[in-house]
Structures are given as C-alpha cells and as structure tokens.
User: Which sequence fits this backbone?
C-alpha cells in the first residue's frame, strides 16, 4: 500500500501546478484519513501532490507511530523529484509529525526539502483529555500519558522544530486542547477559528488559511478568526523554552 501511494506521487510530481511539492496529511486521535479529506482536496486543487498518512490512533504510542511516519519522510526526501515536503496535521497528528521530523533528522539531512507544517488544534503543551482518570485502563492508552499537561511529559519535553515553517490554527470552542496549549515556540503565525476541535478540519476559514500558509507562510485570518493576546503567547513561549532546555540537558 505504502509503495503504491509513493509511486502515484512520483507520477504526479511533474504533472501538477507545483511540481515537486508534496503535502502529507496526518489525522488525530479517534479519526482517520477521511477527517482530512477537505484539507487534502483543497491542497490538490492548489496544485500540490498529496499523501494521506493513516495510522491506528487508538493502538500504539506516539513514538511508535512517529517511527512509521519517519520512514515515509525519509523515503520521500531521498527522491530526486521531491523538492519540498509539507505537512498538514490535526490534533495528536501534529505531535506525531514533530516526533517523526526529529526521528528522521529531516531538518539536518534534507534541510533544503523542509517546507511548511500547518498544525490544526495541536496539543503542543498537552491535552485536556489526559485529565480524565483512566485507572486500570491507563496502560491501554499510552498516547494519553505522552500527551499529559505535566511539564515532564513526552509532548512537553519534545524539542521544537528548527527549519520547518510552522503555522498553528486553534479552535475557540475546543474541549480537547486549550488554546494556550496549541502554541509552539518559533511558530510563524497563529490564528483561532470559532469552531470545535473536530469541526476545525472542515471549517472553510481553517481550510483557506491552511492553503494560504502553504503558499506564503502566512495565515491571513478571515473575519471569523479570533485575535490572541500577545502576553499569553509570551507566557507559553517562556514555559516552552524552559521545557526544551530541560529536555536537551
């Protein structure tokens, strides 16, 4: 399946309006590739070659899934026809993508092929879901432990991206990921859309901003987006810097 998809991308690379530019979509927890269809279709219409990367989100750890995505990133980066690799992610998919970029050493080995990543509702500082008491079932969901809001959790100690250009879109009515938790140190742009966590991937404004960022590295917020207070961003950035420093130690 993987090989057939990559072969299809090979045939598309020179036939699109953006030759050599590939967009990988990565869905979130309790979802599948279909949840990213509207975003994928919009990227295809814009001229990108698109690959929908799926995984069993309720089984296995984030690190396990990141290893699979890492192999795909390496396979793409080794291809002469691939000039830029972009990612569009939702929720936990953003954390998997960050971990995969680090595992593959994409930013070191193929710096010239590092494009843009649009993260929709990413739990970059943890998820509210992890507050739920799981008791004896905790071992069944290792990903929830990795997404804990605790300062020493996997996601809070995950180093930030250095070369990939990051755009973040949050959902205002999100009971899974707090707006503050979506920010990432080094992000190029951030916007908040008046919708829910699950509906964000299908919201017209989120789709429009995703394509705009892929094209220009700027999320030109539509009228229905919400401004975010800069002092809150500074607070989150300071917290992230402390966590990154401790993770690198």
Assistant:
């Amino acid at each position: 399946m993987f090989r057939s998809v990559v072969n299809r991308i090979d045939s598309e690379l020179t036939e699109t309006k953006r030759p050599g530019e590939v967009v990988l979509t990565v869905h979130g927890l309790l979802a599948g590739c279909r949840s990213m269809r509207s975003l994928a279709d919009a990227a295809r219409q814009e001229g990108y070659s698109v690959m929908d990367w799926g995984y069993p989100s309720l089984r296995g750890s984030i690190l396990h899934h990141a290893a699979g995505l890492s192999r795909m990133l390496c396979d793409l980066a080794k291809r002469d026809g691939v000039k830029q690799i972009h990612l569009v992610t939702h929720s936990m998919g953003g954390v998997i993508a960050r971990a995969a970029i680090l595992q593959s050493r994409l930013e070191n080995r193929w710096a010239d092929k590092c494009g843009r990543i649009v993260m929709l509702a990413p739990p970059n500082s943890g998820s509210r879901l992890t507050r739920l008491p799981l008791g004896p079932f905790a071992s069944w969901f290792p990903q929830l432990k990795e997404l804990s809001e605790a300062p020493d959790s996997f996601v809070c100690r995950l180093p930030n991206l250095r070369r990939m250009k990051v755009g973040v879109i949050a959902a205002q009515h999100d009971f899974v990921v707090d707006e503050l938790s979506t920010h990432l140190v080094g992000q190029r742009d951030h916007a908040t859309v008046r919708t829910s966590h699950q509906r964000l991937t299908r919201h017209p404004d989120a789709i429009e901003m995703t394509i705009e960022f892929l094209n220009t590295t700027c999320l030109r917020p539509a009228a229905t987006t919400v401004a975010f207070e800069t002092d809150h961003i500074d607070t989150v950035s300071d917290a992230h810097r402390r966590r990154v420093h401790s993770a690198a130690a």
User: Anything to note?
Assistant: The radius of gyration is 17 Å. Strands lie at 21-26, 49-53, 84-90, 114-120, 165-173, 189-196, 225-226.
